[in-house]
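Subject: sequence -> structure tokens, single chain

Hey, anyone have a minute? Need the predicted structure for the following. Not urgent.
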Amino acid sequence: MMNDDLIRALPKSDLHVHLDGSLRETTLIELARERGVKLPSETVEGLNELVFKPAYASLEEYLRGFAYTTAVMQDTEALERTAYELAWDNIDEGVRYIEVRFAPQLHVHRDLSFDEVLLAVNRGLERAMREHEASPAVAERGEPPFRYGIIVSALRMFQPGFSAWYAQLCELFRDAPETDVFGLASLELARAAVRCRDDHGIPIVGFDLAGAEAGYPAHDHRAAYAHAHRWFLKKTVHAGEAYGPESIFEAITELYADRIGHGYHLFSPELCGPEIADPDAYVERLAQYIADRRVTIEVCITSNLQTNPEVGTVENHVFGRMLAEKLSATLCTDNRLVSHTTVSREYRLAIDAFGMTEKDVRNTIIYGFKRSFFPGRYREKRAYVRQIIDYYDRCLAEAGQAG
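Reply:
Had a minute. Here:
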């Protein structure tokens, strides 16, 4: 059984972490005071009692806290600071690669352009990366350096006036059906992400689709994903988080998804639609389809427990079956603040609940690095993964010697 010190020391990744869901409580309070944003409480204890709770009644309640975090992240200083702190929070617990996702369009307004938003977030992440790379841990002790990528998130749906950026699109496409507006907004985001990546050299590595699944199907966003696909942005989709297996299949087949965010309802035949004659067979075939193509699932145990109260305990989480089926799955935080978690904590929960062997842990961690949307050339990624594996083995050896 791995102890907490070893879990923390092991090099880990987080492929599914939302910037606006991972602020430090103290930073949120400070930024709110400076920017005149009213919070339900100005103490950490009060925020955790009223907003960032241990459990939530639904996904909708879980998401309410984002109204406060995004409100304080409307200028370059706040964006750079939150990104910088997120990087160091990960570095300090042994995480060596993250893919930070967020919706830049929620931060665009008259005084802040799309490019300025991405440049600010990148400055924060890059500054932390350079500081860590120059630290004795890397320079003298040979630890793997910290690396990162940025994923831009489109939204399945939104209300008019949701942000200044969306308001402009609603006006531009005012004669189009509502669902078409959602898809057109995603296409504009994909175009902006590709252009920003190419113009500024920012490591924007992926495109994501988030938001309510029920009633807002993935196929409304085909054009956006086709554009991302054409211009070599990798693809991930929130699917199977609050809807059934068909949502996962559609994400893979309609949007070319390389990875699936959450995928919690992969093994939920009861959520299949009436057109599926044999739901059990459908789920079995879908799991095989995912396994054969090594589509990696970004598993967020704590977040799923919070937004799906019927799960009950960690032992009931579907990650146990994913392990048994030998699927490519890796553990992620989703939102470090909203879920009060870390990557190390997610591994602790999984190890205890599912009796993960050292081999299980190793595979799950390495999947995260191998299936990452690592920026740069493939040979650079291979060399980095090799460095991670060597350091992983070193950590185990040192732990054995210490024992």
